[in-house]
Specification:
The protein has 1 helix and no strands. It has one domain. The chain has one helix spanning 24-45. It has 59 residues and is mainly alpha-helical. It starts with 23 loop residues before the first helix and ends in a 14-residue tail after the last helix. Helices cover 37% and strands 0% of the residues. This is Short-chain dehydrogenase.
Length: 59
């Protein structure tokens, strides 16, 4: 089947808040979904991808 052509990371933890309203735990929860989730998904896909001459992944 080969490596995937497209990675769609369609996950986000969004909370309506004003600056300073979120607890540390709420910030960490959002970071885990919004950033770590995307990086983890990319890390699983990246090993099978080529890198072009500009050293940019095709992801």
């Amino acid at each position: 089947m080969g490596p995937p052509d497209v990675l769609v990371h369609n996950a986000a933890l969004v909370r309506p808040d004003a600056t300073g309203e979120l607890s540390v735990r709420e910030h960490l929860d959002a970071w885990a979904v919004n950033v770590v989730g995307a990086l983890t998904a990319a890390a699983h896909v990246a090993p099978g991808r080529e890198v072009n001459s500009l050293h940019c992944s095709h992801i």
